[in-house]
Amino acid sequence: IMEEQLISFETAKLAKEKGFTYAYEFYDKEGNIEDFGMVGGWTDCHDENYAAPTQSLLQKWLREVHNLHISVNPKILPSNEIKYYLFKGKIKKDFKDLFNTYEDALEIGLQEALKLIK
Q1: Burial of 33 (0-12, 13-18, 19+ CB in 10 A)
Q2: How far apart are CA 46 and CA 26, in angstroms?
Q3: pTM value surpassing 0.70
Q4: Which position has the higher pLDDT, 88 or 59?
Q5: Residues 73, 95: contact at Cβ < 8 Å?
Q6: CA atoms within 13 A of residue 106's CA, in its CB half-sphere
Q7: Which pLDDT value is given to residue 100?
Q8: How many CB atoms lie within 10 A of CB 59?
Q9: Reduced to 3 states, what is the DSSP secondary structure of residue 91?
C-alpha cells in the first residue's frame, strides 16, 4: 500500500517555529503521533504539540505562502540514489548530497527551505 509520508518530528518542530501549525495529525512533545479523536478534520495544534502534515502538504505551503520551491530530481546512478535541488525565486541551491529515496531527499529539502524563512 502506498501512503503519503508524514514529515519527521525534527521537521515538524522547525515548521512550527516558522508558523506552520495546521494538520490532521500531530506529534506530542516527545515525538509520538497524537490522536485527538478528530473525524477527518483540520485543526491548529496545541501549544505543546507539533503539526505532522504530509511532506507534500508542507511542500505546498512553502511554495504558496513563502515562494519556496523544492524540486527533487533523480540522478542516474547504479544505486538509483536521488539528488535534490532547492529553488527560491531565481536563486538555486544545488546540494551534492545523494539520498536513497525520494522522501529522504524531500525531507532535507523541506528543512532547508524552512531555514530560509525569516
Answers
A1: exposed
A2: 9
A3: yes
A4: 59
A5: no
A6: 18
A7: 79
A8: 21
A9: strand
| % of the chain surpassing 90 pLDDT | 42
Cα separations in angstroms, 91 against 7, 18, 56, 68, 73: 25, 20, 22, 10, 17
- In this structure, are strands 43-44 and 26-27 parallel, antiparallel, or unpaired? unpaired
d(CA 6, CA 24): 11
Write b or e for each residue in 74-106: b if 16 or more Cβ atoms lie within 10 A of its Cβ, otherwise e: eeeeeeebbbbebbbeeeeeeeeeebeeeebbb
User: Nine-digit cell at 110?
Assistant: 523541506
DSSP state letters, 10-49: HHHHHHHHTT--EES-EE-TTSPEE----SS--EEPPTT-
Note the pLDDT tens digit of each residue in 27-79.
Answer: 989 999 986 655 445 555 667 889 999 999 999 999 999 999 888 877 777 77
